[in-house]
Amino acid sequence: MTLPTNSGIAPPADYRLLLPEGWFRVNIDPEQREASVSALVNRQFEGTDNAPHIKRQLREELLAQATAAFNAGGLELYLSLQQAGPLTIPASLLITLLPPTSGGKALTAESIAARLSADSDVAVSVVELSAGTAVRTRRMMGQPDRSAPPGVPGTPDEALPSVTLDYQLPVPATGAHLLLTFSTPLVQIADAMVELFDAVAASLRWTEGGSAHE
């Protein structure tokens, strides 16, 4: 991670995150993207040779997701492959570096929280992490189909509901901010999933040298 600096203090070289077992890092760099997605798809379909259409569709969807993440300024994309019995627990984490503001004035957590609080559909708070003061934002995206049984998505034309949790915190000595965006469609167990996301965010540490993502 290459970071700008706005003071005589050296910025961190990178960051460290502890992710649950079963999360897969998708390399979103254009030169590595296809190989990384192929490795993920092959892992998911290991031992299965009779679903080429589903396999191809998953690969296309993951490539589109990885491309969108990169185009949005993403640094890393993680997808959950955790299992609960025969089912995969769907969730994602996108890490984005937000550059310093054009005016050069550092944004405080309180000013960011005040701006985000203008949206009545989000729950915003300022929290203390080991890596610094962060703005925590939780929101529900889309609306569930109330006529469908739990766990059954609505029609293809509907926006599928999901729970999104953001953590935004300053990168020391840079004026930039790191944004962690967690998401899951498991709205029925949203609180449990958010607890997991909170634990991952709390594990964030700045490092002085080398890449140290776990």
Describe the structure.
25% of the residues lie in helices and 29% in strands. The protein has a seven-stranded antiparallel beta sheet, sandwiched between helices. The protein contains four helices and eleven strands, in the order ββααββββαββββαβ. By secondary structure, it is of the alpha+beta class. Helix 1 packs antiparallel against helix 2 (52-71).
Write the topology of this structure.
Blueprint: E1 14-16, E2 23-26, H1 33-44, H2 52-71, E3 74-80, E4 83-84, E5 87-88, E6 92-98, H3 109-116, E7 122-129, E8 132-141, E9 162-170, E10 177-184, H4 190-202, E11 205-207
Antiparallel strand pairs: 1-11, 2-3, 3-6, 4-5, 6-10, 7-8, 8-9, 9-10
Task: Please describe the structure with a list of short key phrases separated by commas or semicolons.
214 residues, 4 helices, seven-stranded antiparallel β-sheet, 29% strand, alpha+beta
